[in-house]
Amino acid sequence: MEIGNWFKGFEKGLERLSPEQRSAFLSECGRNCVNGGTLSVYQQLHERAQGDMDTFFQMANELPGVRGGVVEKGRVYRLVFLECTCKLCKKGYVTTPLLCECSRQSVIYSLQCLWKEKHFTVTLCHSILRGGTDCEMRIEVESQSSLRLPPYKKGCVLARVESNHTI
Hints:
Shape: globular
Largest sheet: 4 strands, antiparallel
Radius of gyration: 16 Å
Oligomer: single chain
Strand content: 15-25%
Structural class: alpha+beta
Helix content: 40-55%
């Protein structure tokens, strides 16, 4: 059996899962993926930013293929990946946008590792697999009183952060 055929079954299996089941399943995949190297990049950035979240997301612009931004200081951020970095997608094994939940889960896991005392809501605004030109996530820091920010209903096209960095 060719490995590409196996992944067709994987995609069909993802389709059969409820959104909650898919999140639980892909959270393990995302965790395993970022533990393979990406988390250490985020940890170094976190150290350089001295744990300051606003600085961290501004400094994310220094990472190749990544754009970060502060939407609302201390509360709302954006993280944009200029290309899909998933090796399963790059090699053509997986083409379903359902796999983007893995990326969303990896961002949640990474943020929780960096700021253990905080809780985050991460919304996938758009992705390359969904037809976008990049993958954008909106990150909301839940307040200490457990009040959640109102849902952002019109997508995540927020104030763009301009950068002179090239990748």
